[in-house]
Design a protein that fits this description.
The protein has 170 residues and is of the alpha+beta class. The chain contains four helices and seven strands, in the order αββαβββββαα. It has a single domain, classed as Peptide deformylase (Peptide Deformylase, Alpha-Beta Complex), CATH 3.90.45. Bound molecules: nickel (II) ion (NI).
Length: 170
Amino acid sequence: MAVLPILTAPDRRLKQISQPVSKVDDALRQLMDDMADTMYHAIGIGLAAPQVGILRRIICVDVHHAQEGNEKKPVFIVNPVIVHSAGEICWKEGCLSIPEYHSEVTRAAHVVVKGLDRNNQVLELVGDDLMAVCLQHEIDHLNGKLFIDHISMLKRSILLKKLKKQKEEQ
Ligand code: NI
């Protein structure tokens, strides 16, 4: 179990397409545990493997823990695919890779996601509202897409300039 460093934008690795996993093995289960530790440590509700520099299609979500401060129940999805989506929801999103920035994004309000679980078994998950938002946000990461790619180009370029400057100053 380990807390991994989280990449922050702008970073070339956050813009790349992650590779599918052929089989969930012990090494990947270790990575999943580390991803969960990293997510909880950063008080996030979702984390995708590319955010810790691993370009594989793995996400971890837990939308209840942060809200209620209760038991940790991370859900891991490997090779997640949205097989059904419906409705529309506007949510003020944030991202562990874009510290201290939030912006409203419109997404589907209901999704069904298929993939593999941590035991390499087929998993189907239904997500509504925040869970739907979180699943779509994390799956976007696997395709090199950040939530700021859903906002206006002007807002995004101003933000990225600021983030780049912050990084250079560090
Ligand atoms: Ni994110």
